[in-house]
Specification:
The chain has 2 domains: 11-48, no CATH class; 59-268, MetI-like (MetI-like fold). It contains 11 helices and no strands. The chain has 271 residues and is an all-alpha fold. Helix 2 packs across helix 11 (234-268) and helix 3 packs parallel to helix 6 (134-159). The two termini are 35 Å apart.
Length: 271
């Protein structure tokens, strides 16, 4: 019987080190230079919190950051709700008329260029004479991120044992009660992962937000992009570092919730 031995070689270590450096070294440099006292981005002038102070005194940047956080939270929540319902309909519901068209329209934003999505939404809002601002950007980001949530949740539902729901219904639960008491807790980690993915995608978007935002409602990525065209300021490094820290906290919290849910599910499972 042949045995496969995984050997750690210098080549594997070198490839791993180069890959990690390619991914994370630019982020590490950005974080270090956010504490640079010099006004010049590429010249080190000692450690300082000057640019963090500048950011918290910059009203325009603070408003853009608050706008981005509100849009990301709202669009991620709506996208998670709609994406989860769509995933349940595709994986648990019987084959209904128009299922192929529905799934195709649901997953279209995955392969459609963002500039086309943004332009089409702009034309829609203009046709409806809708004032562009917080809600138009939220609707646009919901359209973009809902398909990602549906993919994550549907993959979890597909791998789930349906006999658990059937056992709950045999014990007297109706389909809705069986879903809420059995299926929903088991797919909660996937729902949390979908929300986190939708939140980060919304927080990162520039193209679609550019088409759907209005005066006085620019998101932080748009604000940063407009500032970078005139030259990179050390304040931008501080802003990016704060958002890196925020995303790291969200990831750790989502991992903790997922682990806690999995542990409760295992402890509640019958022997």
């Amino acid at each position: 019987m042949a045995r496969t031995v995984n050997r750690i070689t210098r080549f594997n270590i070198s490839a791993l080190a180069l890959g990690l450096a390619f991914l994370y070294l630019p982020i590490v440099i950005l974080v270090i230079y956010s504490f640079n006292a010099s006004r010049l981005v590429t010249v080190w002038g000692g450690w300082s919190l000057r640019w963090y102070t500048e950011f918290f005194n910059d009203r325009a940047m603070l408003e853009a950051a608050w706008m981005s956080l509100r849009v990301a939270a709202a669009s991620a929540t709506i996208a998670t709700l709609l994406g989860t319902l769509a995933a349940v309909a595709l994986s648990r519901g019987d084959r209904f008329k128009g299922r192929t068209l529905f799934s195709g329209m649901l997953y279209a934003p995955l392969v459609m260029p963002e500039i086309i999505t943004g332009l089409s939404l702009l034309l829609l809002f203009v046709a409806l004479n809708a004032e562009r601002g917080f809600w138009t950007v939220t609707i646009a980001h919901t359209t973009l991120t809902m398909c990602f949530v549906a993919v994550v949740v549907q993959s979890r539902l597909t791998s789930l044992d349906r006999s658990l729901e059937e056992a709950a219904m045999d014990l007297g639960c109706n389909p809705v009660q069986a879903f809420l008491s059995v299926t929903l807790p088991l797919i909660m980690p996937a729902i949390a992962a979908g929300w986190m993915l939708a939140f980060i995608l919304s927080l990162d978007d520039v193209v679609i937000a550019t088409f759907t935002t209005g005066p006085g409602s620019a998101t932080l990525p748009i604000r940063i992009y407009s500032e970078v065209r005139l030259g990179v300021k050390p304040e931008i490094n501080a802003i990016c570092t704060l958002f890196i820290a925020l995303i790291a906290v969200v990831i750790v919290a989502a991992s903790f919730v997922s682990k806690l849910t999995r542990t409760r599910g295992e402890s509640a499972a019958p022997l």
